[in-house]
Amino acid sequence: MxxxxxxxxxxxxxxxxxxxxGDNVDRLRGGGCCSPCLSYYCLSLFCxxxxxxxxxRAALRNKYNLPQEPCDDCVVHCFCTPCAVCQEARxxxxxxxxxxxxxxxxxxxxxxxxxxxxxxx
Length: 121
Description:
0% strand
């Protein structure tokens, strides 16, 4: 599958790479997309986005048991950033991951006891 097989996602990833990265992180781990987006953007100003993006790519690979291709995760992000982010977004989309779902809670919630209102005299 080439980098531009999903036109809308490719366009979004090419023009707003940090935003798509933040969305990928939010769908993978939860916690919102603003912080990852901002950190990716700031690091990309110094061509260091591979430091944070490579870790996310590795987490995605480990979660879904994907091979490390074509080379190291950080290297992929340093040289092919928009394509790498689009590829990760397509993988999450293909697997139907729309948002982060935390592990099931061990707490049981129930409705509060019924309350009664008494007339005032």
